[in-house]
Amino acid sequence: MEVSKSFIKDLTYKINGAAIEVHKNLGPGLLESIYHQCFAYELESRGLHFQSEMRIPIHYKNMSIDSKLRCDFYIENLIVVEIKSVEAIPPIAEAVLISYMKLLKSPKGIMYNFNVVNLYHEGQKTYVNEFFTELKE
């Protein structure tokens, strides 16, 4: 299957729908682990393939490094999702997400902060990189 920008857009719509459903039902102020479990349930109920707490492989020159880095979700082997429940996303969390995208050759990443009043407007940030710009429309 050839991945296109429109496929990524449709997948993002489904992922956002899952996150919004969780936030609509639970609201802000809970532990990240609770949102994580509920988000996994919503992804599964939408028939999306994902890995939760997936170990990030790191290859440096001719060696593999056991980094113990884990992304919250890797969805359809295309989109990295990180979940937070904090007052404000620290810049290092954004840097980590961008690094995960690069290491996984993922064209898109999404950061959700469930500790907001309106997830869609203030609790979601999307990132794209060179792997996205290389995709066909």
Concise account of the structure shown:
This protein has 137 residues and is of the alpha+beta class.
Structure characterization notes:
It comes from Mongoliibacter ruber. This is GxxExxY protein. The structure is a single chain. The chain has 137 residues and is an alpha+beta fold. The protein has one domain (5-133). The chain is 42% helix and 26% strand. It is built from 5 helices and 7 strands. The protein has helices at residues 5-26, 32-45, 91-104, 119-122, 130-133, and strands at 50-55, 58-60, 63-65, 70-75, 79-84, 108-113, 124-128. Strands 1-4-5-6-7 form a 5-stranded mixed β-sheet, sandwiched between helices. The protein has a two-stranded antiparallel ribbon with strand order 2-3. The longest helix is centred in the N-terminal third of the chain and has 22 residues, at 5-26. The mean pLDDT is 94.
